[in-house]
Amino acid sequence: MTTHAMENRKNLLARMEAGSMALIWSGSAPHRTTDQHYAYTPQRNFFYLTNVNEPNMVLMMLKGENDTHSCLFIEENTDHIIKWEGARMEKAKAAELSGIDESNIMYEKQFKPYVAQVMNYARSVIGKPPKTLYLDLYHVKPDEKPIALDQAGFILANYKELDIKAINEHTSYLRMVKRDVEITEMAKAIEHTRKGLETIMKNLPSRTHEYQLEADFLHEITLAGSEGNAFDTIAAGGANATVLHYVANRDALDKDSLILFDLGALHNNYAADISRTYPVSGKFTKRQRDLYQIVLDVNKATIAMVKPGVTWKELNAFAKTMLIKQAKKHRLIKNDAEINELYYHSIGHFIGLDVHDVGHYDLPLKPGMVLTIEPGLYVKDEGIGIRIEDDVLVTEKGYRNLSEGIIKEIDDIEAFMKPYRQ
Ligand SMILES: [Mn+2]
After folding, report:
1. What is the mean pLDDT of the chain?
2. 286-305 and 312-329 are packed helices; what angle lies between their axes, rounded to 10 degrees?
3. pLDDT higher than threshold 90 for residue 63
4. Percentage of the chain lying above the pLDDT 70 cut
5. CA 280, 285, 290, 295: dihedral to nearest 10 degrees?
6. Would you place residue 261 in the very low, low, confident or very high pLDDT band (cuts 50, 70, 90)?
7. How close is the Cα of 99 to the center of ligand 1, in Å?
């Protein structure tokens, strides 16, 4: 993974303008309440470029006319930190993980003076002071300020000569295509998720509430070595499954209903994102079978479409057209437009270090991209919501379904759950 981060920096530097500086912070855990904080998770671009999973660091990348330079600023250990929170990563470890030479790893108190040196003509390590500053300008909401604008506040205030640009166009472009080592990490996250879903199927007939299955999943993936959920688990029984981001998971289970799970484990910060829909009792009713089979057929046919050159637009259109045809056949709808009442999201998204991963959705698929394929059908009147989601790698010749080991055929689910039926 060290070489992986070095290669990533090299590729990013190649895309940066000559005469530029990039600053990427690792972030810190947001405040929760009184003296409590949320769990820390690394800023994904920082992790991608350093392979370091630690808060309160800054990566600086410089590109001159002929030269490039990377350095890392880290937290310095104090007695208090060591005794109360545990030692922060030392320079040697940060160097080993990132591949940045130890001589270029400094403490955070050196960060501002170093910026001043870089910006003062005579002391610049790349020959001239940079003209452009790249920051991670990801916008969570249109009216919310990107966090990096605060982190780089003193630079924005004091170095007005810098032209601010978003690094995201370039990091998104690079992160969109995964390396083999990343595919391996994602396969592990998917394997944890498979174990979690099998535990869910075993326990489902004897559980009474949605949150119990959420707990079963977290328990199993934690035992398997995952660092936790990649996102909030959706365990949505009956009509709750028609709410796309239902995460309350507090309701009692109806034995005759279906339950939709949309969940995924993390492995070394790489995400899995899988949806499966099971009968609570372990056996589908005739109606549930019919509707489930529609979604399953669309899931499989759309996955089979995945190959280099295909566009997201084509995948979306294909899945929707097939759903319309099937919904008409089963008399769920009369005209095409009515499908929007039964299926109201797109066919999928890129996945990687982020669950909804960064990437350029207008580009045709390329080998190394990993995407979810997740058609659904939501019939609120009947208390039925179905989604079947797999994580699919684009290969040179077509695709490889990374989650093919997670069963989804009706007969396989019923056979698996049979010994556990009440
Ligand atoms: Mn998804």
Report:
1. 96
2. 150
3. yes
4. 99
5. 0
6. very high
7. 33
Residue 152, judged by CB atoms within 10 A of its CB (0-12, 13-18, 19+), counts as buried
pLDDT, one tens digit per residue, over 114-171 is 999 999 876 778 888 999 999 999 988 899 999 999 999 999 999 999 999 999 999 9
CA distance 360 to 364: 9
Span from the CA of 232 to the centroid of ligand 1 (angstroms): 12
DSSP secondary-structure letter at 322?
A: H
Ordered structural domains, the chain, with CATH = 2-175 (3.40.350.10), 180-420 (3.90.230.10)
Cβ-based burial of 240 (10 A; exposed 0-12, middle 13-18, buried ≥19): buried
Of the candidates 376, 39, 422, which has an alpha carbon nearest to the alpha carbon of residue 236? 376
What is the crossing angle of helices 286-305 and 410-417, to 10°?
A: 120
Tell me how far the alpha carbon of residue 274 lies from the centroid of ligand 1, in angstroms: 7
pTM of the predicted structure, to 2 decimals = 0.96
**DSSP assigned state of 87:** P
**306 pLDDT higher than 80:** yes
DSSP three-state, residue 21: strand
What's the confidence (pLDDT) of residue 1?
61
Spacing, Cα 48 to ligand 1 middle (Å)? 21
Average pLDDT over residues 284-300: 98
Paired tokens of 404: 């093919």
Contacts of 123 (CB under 8 A, 6+ apart): 117
What is the per-residue DSSP string for 191-256? Answer: HHHHHHHHHHHHHGGG--BHHHHHHHHHHHHHHTT--SBSSPPEEEEGGGGGSTT-----SBPPTT
261 phi, psi to nearest 5 deg: -115, 130
- Give residue-wise pLDDT tens across range 325-341: 999 999 999 999 999 99
Tokens at 52, concatenated: 């370091």
What are 355-365's pLDDT values in tens digits? 999 999 999 99
How far does the centroid of ligand 1 lie from the alpha carbon of residue 369, in Å?
15
Beta strand extents in 51-148 (DSSP E only): 58-63, 68-74, 105-107, 132-135
Going from the Cα of 333 to the center of ligand 1, the distance in angstroms, rounded, reads 25
Q: Using CA atoms, how far apart are residues 400 and 43, in angstroms rounded to an integer?
A: 29
Q: What's the confidence (pLDDT) of residue 2? A: 65
Ligand 1 geometric centre to CA of 137 (Å): 24
